[in-house]
Amino acid sequence: MPPFYATFFAYRLKIFAPEIKALVKKKSKFSLNQEAKRPQSINIKRIDCFSRSRKRGRLVMLWIIYVVFVLAVLFLVMPLVLSYIFLCVGFPRAKDKETPENYGLSYRNFSVVTSDGVNIKGWFIPGSSKATIIVVYGGIRRTKGLKEVTPGGELSVSMLPLARFLHEGGYNVILYDRRLTGESGRGLLTRSAEDVYAIVQYIKSQSLDMNKIGLLGHCAGGWISIMAAGGKPGLFRAVVADAPIPNLKEGGRWFQAASHLPAFPFYNLFLLMGRIWVRDIKSVDEVSSNQYVSRISPSAFFLIVEARDQFFPSSSFERLYDLAGEPKQIWKDIDAAHTEAHARFPEEYKRRVLSFYDTYLQDSSKS
Q: Which segment of 153-157, 258-262, 336-340 scores lowest on mean pLDDT?
C-alpha cells in the first residue's frame, strides 16, 4: 500500500476510532443479549419437557391407584361382602309359590325361636303315626314351598313331593325355612343346626314320640342334618343325606355356581374372610360334614350320591361314607345331577327312603 493511502486510512481510523469502538461495543452487547436469550429459550424447553414428564408421572400414578383400587375391591371388598351375605344376612328373599294344599295335604303354620334368637317359620303336616321327619332343603334362595330349577338346569322341583310321599308313609312331616331364607330370620349360617334343635322342641310340644325323629336333607340341608345329628348324638334316629356338602374346603364349584365368580381365588378368599364374621370356630373343618358324620352312630345314616354331581367329586362322598359309623346305607351311581335323584327316579327314591325310615323309625310307632 502506498504511503499516502496508509497515512489516509490511519488518519481516518484515528478519527473514527470512537465510532468504531461504540459500534463494536454495541455489537458485543447485542451478541451478549443474543447469547443471554439463547439459554433462556433452552430453559423454557427444559421446563416444558419437565412439565410433560410430571404430567406423565401423575397419569401413571393415577393408573397405579386405579389398579390397586380395583384389585382391592376384587380380592378384599368383594369376598368380604360376599362372605357377609352368605353367612350373616342372606340373599334377597324368595317367597313360597306352593303350599301343602297344592298336594292335597292339610297343614298348620308354626314358629319357633332358636337358642341364638333366630325366628324360624315352617309347616307341620300331621301324619298317622308318632314318628316325624324334618325336611331340610338346600340352595341359597330356596324356600319350603318354592319350585326351583335343579342345578342340572333341566328339572323344576319342589320339596313338597318329598313331604307327600313321607306323609303317605304315615309320617308327620315338617318343612321349614332355614335361617337367612324365606320367612325365617337372620343368624350365622354355621349355626343352622340350632334351627333343627328348636324344631325338636316344637315336636315335643305336639306330644309326638321324641325317640322317633328323622332328618332328610339335600345339599346344604344334608350338611345341616349331619351337623345336627352329630352335634347331639341319639336325638335323631335316622338321617338321610342327599348329596350333602362333604367338606366346605371342596365347595369351590358350588360357590362358583351360586356367585358366578371363579372359584379360584374368590372361594379361598371367601373362606378366609368368613373368619371375620364367624369367630366361634377356628377352622372350616369344624363345621364340615366329615367332622360330624362319625358321631351320628348308633343312629342310622343313609347317603344318596348322584353320579353326575357337578359340584362335588364322588371320592368326597365315598370318604364321607367311610367315616360314618354303623348302621349305614348308600345309594350311588345314580344317573342324575346334583340332588336330582328324587326328581328323575321318584318311585325308586320313595321306595328306598321309606324302607330306610320304616326300618329305624316305624317299628312300633304306628298308631
A: 153-157
Cα-based distances in Å from 148 to 180, 223, 292, 334 = 17, 19, 29, 21
Cell matching residue 366: 304306628
Contacts of residue 80, defined as CB under 8 A and 6 or more positions apart, other chains included, come to 273, 276
pLDDT above 80: residue 59: yes
Domains of the chain from N-terminus onward = 1-89+249-281 (no CATH), 100-247+288-360 (3.40.50.1820)
250's grid cell: 371342596
Task: Give the pTM.
Answer: 0.80
297 confidence band (pLDDT: 50, 70, 90):
very high
6-44 pLDDT, tens digit each: 444 444 545 445 555 555 455 555 454 555 555 545 555
Cell of 315: 371320592
For residues 277-301, average pLDDT:
86
